[in-house]
Amino acid sequence: MRELARVRAQAAKLRRRPAADEAVELLEDVLLLVDALRIECAGLQQRCSELEADRRRSDEGMQKLLDALPGPIVTTDACGTILDANRAACLLLARSRAKLTNDLLLHFAEDREQFTSVIRELPLVESHQLPHARFRPKDRAPVDTAVTVVRDPRIESPQWLWVFAPHTNCCISASSGTIERRARSSVG
After folding, report:
1. H-helix or E-strand containing 164?
2. Which of 1, 5, 24, 140 is surrounded by the fewest CB atoms within 10 Å?
3. Residue 178's closest CA among 148, 149, 150, 137?
4. What is the DSSP string of 60-120?
């Protein structure tokens, strides 16, 4: 701002000289353009602030929706670092959202080779299915689950939603926060 004031003062000095009419006119046009750009920038900054507030409200709404879902959903980056987890995922993995955030989902996978293979394939596909995976929550018995991994369409940078579904012999009760084992039904 100081530099702009200095340029305006120099333009005022040039106006007093009769031989510098064209230069003064050009300088005044440039100053008008700078003023117009400043007004445009202020408008764009205001619009950016409005869009950021809208995005925050949308993110909060999405988080409420994810928390309301009975199935566990974990959001990771492309390396498997947990970025977020809904309430059911926190129950499944026996950790709070704060403790899960920035931890590796790999730490909960019993078959680390299978998990690493999925992580390597993620950049190449839009989704991946694991019909059977076993995750070991902290201080609990392992949980058998099916997992669908899909790219999060809401976000430009690669993030992945890990959607856990109960395997045929277990079911997660989000209301009580427990994992119930079901006996496999044998037909015939």
Report:
1. strand 159-166
2. 1
3. 137
4. HHHHHHHHHSSS-EEEEETT-BEEEE-HHHHHHHTS-HHHHTTSBGGGGBS-HHHHHHHHH
Sequence ranges of the domains in the chain: 2-49, 69-181
Amino acid of residue 26 = L
Q: Is 14 exposed, middle or buried (0-12, 13-18, 19+ CB in 10 A)?
A: middle
pLDDT (tens digit per residue) in 52-85: 999 889 888 888 888 888 999 999 998 999 999 9
Cα–Cα distance for residue pair 168/155, rounded to 1 Å: 32
Which CATH superfamily is 69-181 part of?
PAS domain (3.30.450.20)
User: What is the reported pTM?
Assistant: 0.63
